Amino acid sequence: MRHKIFIAFLSLLTATSTLDMAKAQSLPYKNKNLPIEERVEDLLNRMTVDEKIAQIRHIHSSKIFNGQELDMKKLTDWAGNTSWGFVEGFPLTGDNCAKSMYLIQKYMVEKTRLGIPIFTVAESLHGAVHDGATIYPQNIALGSTFNPELARKKTQMISDDLHSMGFRQVLSPCIDVVRDLRWGRVEESYGEDPYLCGLFGIEEVSGYLENGISPMLKHYGPHGNPLSGLNLASVECGLRDLHEIYLKPFEMVVKNTGILAVMSTYNSWNHIPNSASHYLLTDILRDEWGFKGYVYSDWGAIEMLKTLHFTARNSSEAAIQAISAGLDAEASSKCYPFLKGLIEKGQFDEKILDTAVRRVLFAKFAMGLFEDPYGKTFKNRKRHSPESVKLAKTIADESTVLLKNENQLLPLDTKSLKSIAIIGPNADQVQFGDYTWSRNNKDGVTPLQGIKNRVNKNTAIHYAKGCSLTSLDTSGIAEAVEAAKNSEVAVIFGGSASAALARDYKSSTCGEGFDLNDLNLTGAQSQLIREVYRTGTPVILVLVTGKPFVIEWEKNNLPAILVQWYAGEQAGNSIADILFGKVVPSGRLTFSFPRSTGHLPVYYNYLPSDRGFYKNPGSYDSPGRDYVFSAPSALYSFGYGLSYTSFVYKNLSTDKDKYELNDTIHATVEVKNTGKYTGKEVVQLYVRDKASTYVTPVKQLRDFKKIELAPDETRTIQLQVPISDLYLVDEKNQRFVEAGEFILEVGQASNNICLLYTSPSPRD
Prior knowledge:
TIM Barrel; disordered N terminus; single chain; Immunoglobulin-like; alpha/beta; four-stranded parallel β-sheet
């Protein structure tokens, strides 16, 4: 009898479970045919306060992993019956990510009350930060290609790596406009120009979204000009600079893509922390630009409202300030759990919490997590494919900038070269840049390896490190000098080094939190370069770096200089191909080089009054004004870069003489390759207001095209500028376009204009 009763009870339980499952599947929020807004509201109305708060919080790997292994008991204890918003696994290998992210998602979908999928999160500034992923050139290199199409291709490829590891959300791209070169995070930016940063941001975001990955714009708020160049420091600027420089790329991306996530910055503007700024996070981002996604805090940024900015006395106040301003999701800190008690005491309106949760849920529905939580749509994506390695090499090739090439020393002839000295702290060391998973030579190609791969077998290679990047020890310089004396040419690889995220931070001179008070080459590098130069052997300097350095002596004395921004895992092969002429350099500077640290700032789009009034720059032999002993100009300006070939510009014209407000200027120019190599040229269009109500920059980049021309080939290039982009901003942040004349400048760099055209625009 008991047996029969047990069976009957079991049958009843099974039937009930089946009914519950069927009921669950019929719930409106699980119905993919309903509008997302309806699904969000249905789900939100079913959630407890605890479940709501969990949706706007982040599970960190340290809480649920034992080293590389997921601890299911820890996960169960941490999450219980409640699904969370986000989870990361930064220190994990790619293989362990693939295994663990699936298990975590399975728990959230199948073991929690409402079965809300979790956003699995990775960093991916220039490749996923997990072992085995392709390491691409850093953002500063990508920008220097002046080829935004490569940005989209890069994120399309990165998406393959991410899907192979179980990720659906990335904390990138970084689109900060950087104006202080002392800051360690220069390398994370595309450049000093807001228009260029915006274009590259649009392409990167589009590449991710097209491939099932939700990108996150960072860092929202004025960020790239921190006081004294120190990380997390405030940015001091007016309303016009805020919108026309620092926020401009974000506006471009938000208005031209379906971006669903934005990360706020740590620092402050106008004495208000950006993470608690209603003006930035709500008035501008949402009300003015129409952003529909969620804002995510940088690591611990909400807690910093009480520990760094002191606008909050405790974690409860910090939580209220941030979420009320429009910061929806909290990473790392533990302030948002206090919201429950505040709601229960009637000290906080639950509707504000609902708004934040609603935005996170909207993004999860929009990204298809409810229909495909395990990423089955993307299950066949391969990690570190041959195609991705090829693309990394292409970006490296197009990003290296040739700064000087006296008497056409480059390219070197592999057939006739009998000996070469390879010298410097970065000669036999990979430098991938910050936000990567390795600093190990086995995971990339060093310059020394690349050169060995390319030179004739009869060419003698003399290697000497010479010095380190940080130490003042000069004991190794003598060996480097001897190597140079025994060689036909010496190539010195100097520059900087950056950390590897969550793995290795030692001996870094660049990257997040590694700011410099002085932009002269660090350690004994300058002495190494000068002593090798004194041997009389021709010296080629290659800066392998994440930021510009002061190299005025080097420019005045060395015959050839290249800058290879952190160029990814194929850096060594790329620089070898450039040195020996297999690849013609085509990179252009997106950051101007200063003559000294005291010359900062040196960005190209300065105001007419900001590079001196007396126009009598001096020297030590002949003191003057506008610096007594120097010139206020940049050493190398934005847009600059040489080639092994040469180009001539002619016949600049526009489609009309007068334009209306809704028109677009279409300009054409002829470009001819007058050299002997097939090469790529970056045709740059700048615009300046001849006269305006408010002071405007001396020029602003408005369009560019990168083209490839064979010797003697001529091509007509079309560039365009919408009249609406020529607006001014008044004291109330209202935009308007003035009638009057605008000067169009087309050339090879911001300070190398080949052709001018003055156009009345728009018409009264």
